[in-house]
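Hello,

Following up on my earlier ticket. Below are the two sequence lines again, exactly as submitted.
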Amino acid sequence: MNWKSWYLNMEINKAKYRFSDTKCSSCSMIGVWRAAGYNDKSVIIFHSPKACAHVTRELDVSSFYYDLARGCGQRSRGILLASNLQDQHSIFGGEEQLFACIEYAAKQYQPEYIMIANSCVAGIIGDDTKKVAEMAEEQVGIPVLTVPCYGFLDKNPYYAGYYYAAYALIDRFMTAKPKNKNKVTLIGDISEITHHELARYLQYFNLEIGGCFPSGLSLDKIKQIPASAFIITVGGKVGKTEHLWRIANLLATRFSLSVLQDAFPVGLANTAKWLGTIGEFLDQPELAVQAIEREKCYLDAGSTVFRKNLYHNHTAIIIGRSLEFFNPEWLFEIIVYANLRVDSIIILNVVAEKERDQLMEAIKRYTDAPIYLEKDFSAEFTALDFVLTTHELKKNSVKQFIIPVFPPYGSNGILRSLQQLSELKQRKNHIGRSICGTF
Amino acid sequence: MEHFENVCMQVNSCSLSGVAAFFAGIPKAVIVLNSPLWCYYNVLKQIEIDGNTAQQIFCTHLDNTSLIYGTEEYLLETLQSVKKECTEDITVLCIENSCAVTLIGDDIAAIAKKAGFSCPVICLDSGGLKGDFWEGYQFAVDAYFSQVKTAGKEKKIPRTVNLLGCSVTYQNYYNDLTELKKLLGVLGYQVLTCPGCGSSVEEMQHIGQAELNIVLHEELGLTLAKKLQNDYGTPYLNRLLPYGIAGTLEWLQAIQDFFVVDDQIEFQQIEQVATKYKEKAEKRLQKLRNIWGDLNFYNVVVSAPVSIALPVAKAIKEEWADCANVYAILQDGKMHSELMVPGIIVIDGKNDSIRIQTILENLAGGLLVGCSNDRSLLLQAKITTVVCQNICSPNYDEVLLSESPYVGFQGASFLLENLWNKYIEMKKLEKF
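Thanks for your patience. The regenerated structure is below:
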C-alpha cells in the first residue's frame, strides 16, 4: 500500500475530534475543585449555574473508574455545591444567591472551610465574590476562601484555578513549624500510581511522603506542610508546571523550605537525573548511584519480553500538538529503548503554523525519519505494525497508540508504555482501535 | 427557599447537552456550539455513545476576547468549516449559545444568515443559565417544531403512531426502540416518527399524520405531545414504559384501548407470548430457587429519569423480586408525574441529596438499579454487598453489546436474568 492510499485509508485528515491546543480548553473551576476538593471536611461552592457542577461531577465519576481499574480510587468524593445562577441573576446579580449558598453549606456540613470558585457567568455579571465571602465568613464563623479566577476567562484557566486555590490554603492555614527531616511534601496533581512510584524512589533515601499538596488533603495535613524536610514539584507536564513551581516557591519563601523542581522522572534519562538530583540535594550521591543502578536493573528485567516483541517493528508518528503539550524526548526514548523503526512523521494541520517549525526542529534532534506536513506528504510505505499518534484517528482498523499528554512516571511508567505497545502489536488486526499511553 | 445540593449525589448535565442530544438524533443534522472548548468537550462526552457523533458537532472555540468584541468572527469562521467539512447535504443546522455568550447578547441568527446556508438554521440560547439536560432537550424540540416547517394538519393515517421523548443519549435506546416497534407491529401499528432518535427532517414534516402520539420518556416528550395535540389535534398517551411482562401487557392494552380495537385475536396472541415468557422463566428459575432461595432484597433503589425509574421500580416490586422498601430516585426531579406508582417511595433526585446519601449508605445487601454515578457513591462509601445493574447513563462499568432490550417481554427476561446472575454472584461472595 502506498503512502497516499494508506493515509487516506486512515482518514488521518479526519482526526476524530476537532480541537486545537492553541485555544483555551479548560475551566478554572475544575482547577479549584482538583486542588481543594475531595475532602469530606471542606465544601467547594461553584458560583455558577448548577450544570457546571454536574459536568465536574461527571468527570469525577469517569476518573473514579479509571483509577479503580488501576487499583486506586480511594479518594473521597468530597462535597460540591453550586450557587445555582440562573437567567435572572444576570440582571440582578448573584451575590445574594451566593451568600445563601454559603450559609447553607455552613449549616448543613459544618466544614472546616469553604472555598468558592467563580464561573465565567459570575465574571461577566461582575459579582464581588470576595466581598460576599468576607461578609458570609463573619456571619457563619467558618473560613470562606476565594480565588480571583472566572471560568474560562483567565489565561490557562485550569492552572490559574489550581494555583489560586492552593495559594488561598497556604495563605490562610499555614504557619511555620519545626522541620521533620524524613517527611517530604509533593506538589502536584498526581495519580495514586504516580504517588506509589515516587514513594518507592524516596525510600532509597529513607524518605517518606508526608502529603501531596494541595489535592485531597485534610486541614490537619495541610497545616503540617511547613514541617516538611523539603518540597518536590512533580505534577504537570512539559511546559505546564509553572503553577506548581509557583506553589512550591510560595511555600519555600514563606516557610524556608527547599524546593526540588529541576527534573521530572519521566523517561529513562529524567528518572536517573531526578534520582541524582535528590542524592546531590541530600549530599548522599552514593545512594543516588545505587538507586539508579537498581532502577536500571529493574527496568531491563521487566522489559525483556516487551523489547523482544517490539524489536524492529515499523511505526509512524502523527503529531497534532505543539511542544507545549508534546514531549519528544520521552517518546523517542521509548522508541530507541524498544528498537522501533520510525518510517515517517506527520505533523497534523491542527498544529498552528507558527509552532510547526519549532516542533519539527525539536523532532529532528531525535530522528532522521522524514517529516511531512499533513497537507503535503509524498512518501511510500509498505506496512506498519502500529502508529504512535497524539490524536485518535477515525479509522478503526489502524492500531493506534495514543501519545499521552502526561507521560507516565518512572521505570514503571516506561514498562507500562512498552507493555501497551506490545499488547497493541498482538491485538488482532480486525480489532484495531487505540490504546491510550497513560497509566 | 433556594435549594442547594451536593451535586455528587445527582446525575444531570447542561441544557447545552440537552439541545445537542435532540439534534444529534436527526440524520445529517449539524450542531455548532458557540461556546468555549471546555463546554464542547463536555457535550461530546455526554452525546457520543457509539463513537460517531463527533463529526456532527462543531465548536467556535471562544476565548475571553470574544466576550468583549463579540463572537461573530468566530462563528463565521466555524460556519465556513462546517461548509467545507460537511460534504453531504446538511438537513438542519443548530447553533446554540453557551451561558457566557447568552449574556453578551450576540444576534447569532443574523450572523448565521451571512453564512448563507440553504437548510433550516435554528439558533437558540442554551447553557446552564437556561436549564439542565432535560430542559435543554425540550428547548430544542420546541425550537425545531416552531421554526422548521411541517406539512401542517394532514389526513391521519389509520393505526399509526409517533414515539415521543426518545434520545440517542439514553442507554440501550436503540434496542428498546426496536423492541417497541416490533411489539407495536405485531398489533398492526406503524410507527411514523421518533423525533430526536433517528427520524429525518422529511419524516418529521409529516408528524401530524399519526393517529396517536405515544410518550415514551415524559421528561423529554410530554411537552411535545401537548404541543402536537394543540397544533394537529393528535391525542397522546403517556403510560409507564413497558418494563416487565405485566408492564408490557398493560402498555399494549392501553394502546389497544385507545384505538378501540374490537378484534381481540391479535392481543390474545400477545398474551400467549407473555405467558410463554413467564412460564419459561418460572421453569428455569425453579431449580435455582431451590438452591439460592428467592430473589430477595430488603431495600431496593432505582435511580433514573422518571420515565425509567417508576416502571422499573414497579416491575421489581410486583414481578421480579421480594422486597420491603422500593425507592425511586427521580434524577430529573419530576415529582408531579401523573404516573406515580402506589407503594414506591419517590425521592426528588434534584433536590434531596441528603436523603439520597442516607438511603445509599443503608443499601448493604440490597439492590441498586441505576448508573455508574450511584455505584461509585456506594464504592466510595465502601459498601460492596449490593447487587447493581446499570440502566441509564453515565455508564462506565458495564458493557452493553447484545441486542437485548430492557423493555418488552425480551427486556423483562434480560433484566431478570441479569438480576439473578448478579444476585447469585453476590451470595457466593458473601460465603467467602
